[in-house]
Amino acid sequence: MSVISLFVILDEKVKIMMTSMKPLDWLLLITLSFIWGGSFYYAEIALREVTPLVVVWGRVGGAALILLLLLRLMGQALPRNIKVWCAFFVMGLLNNVVPFTLIVWGQTEITSSLTSIFNATTPLFTIILAQFLTHDEKIGRSKVFGLLVGFIGVILMVGFDALDGISATLWAQIAVLVAAVSYGCAAIWGRRFKDINPMVTATGQVVSSSLVMTPIALIYGFPNGYFVPSGEVLFAIGFMAFFCTVVAYILYFRILTTSGATNLMLVTFLIPLSAILLGTLLLGERITLDQLSGMILILLALLIVDGRMLRNKRLKTIG
């Protein structure tokens, strides 16, 4: 074997260490997709009685109270550094306030299926942003190809019927796309918290978000006056606060720390898949051929983006 081949192999092994996800990270990513998959459904329930601002406020405010209690029980303390709190506020805006509000408002105009399609553009925006804003998550041809395959898989799985009437709801679509860009920015911004406990980071983020949302929701979120929503709506908001925010963001920052922003955003490909699987397992819904084909494309895309299988094959060829 030549010296050049040896250097190629060493370079490939370094890339594998830097970009491949561990089995535990994949398990956490899949778990996160199932949790966030339920957020679209419960948001639709909550929107039957309350405005988007109240939905977002209830979600982040409830999550903040729960996380503060859990943090106290664990004997953990929030940092007192003003720079860290400024970073928390930016993270809260990028990861909660802006995308939550835009997505929930978008769901008042478009279906949750179409919302999930636009939300699945998040990894595409993330790799573009990472190209310019990071030094260790650069775009490769295989990663771009994998993301495009995954996006096609999402459209195929959700169904082309979700695209009907797409031109009539332009602003709602733009809102969800802006939310996807915001998520991508948040994933990159959140890399700075890698040395902070994920529980502390999650708490700081949602506390900051709730401080921003409270005055906005109280002033603009109750156009018809204050009232107590039904038990079903309160349960929906509570579910989003605890599972879709508290549990989800603990997993989020754990994956972000170990696997990077681009890999983390693959969760948006898995969310529609998770929703369909939950419907099949819990509600007895049947999987169509298009859905099965979309699932296969998404799984193929994840293998391509992960790159481990392709690199191992390349290393064997070199050897």
Structural features, described:
The protein has one domain. 78% of the residues lie in helices and 0% in strands. The chain has helices at 3-19, 23-46, 52-73, 82-106, 112-119, 122-133, 141-158, 170-189, 198-220, 231-259, 261-264, 267-283, 289-306, 308-318. The N and C termini lie close together (7 Å).
Features:
14 helices; disordered N terminus; about 325 residues; mainly alpha; globular
Q: Tell me the number of strands.
A: 0
Mean pLDDT: 80
Q: Determine the strand fraction and express it as a percent band.
A: under 5%
Q: H/E series, N to C?
A: HHHHHHHHHHHHHH
Assembly type? single chain
> Alpha-carbon distance between the termini?
7 Å
How many separate domains? Answer: 1
| Shape label | globular
Low-confidence stretches: 1-19
How are the elements arranged and paired?
Elements: H1 3-19, H2 23-46, H3 52-73, H4 82-106, H5 112-119, H6 122-133, H7 141-158, H8 170-189, H9 198-220, H10 231-259, H11 261-264, H12 267-283, H13 289-306, H14 308-318
Helix pairs in contact: 1-14, 2-10, 2-12, 3-4, 3-9, 3-10, 4-8, 4-9, 5-7, 6-8, 7-12, 7-13, 9-10, 12-13
Short overview:
The protein is mainly α and 319 residues long. The chain has one domain (38-318). The chain is 78% helix and 0% strand.
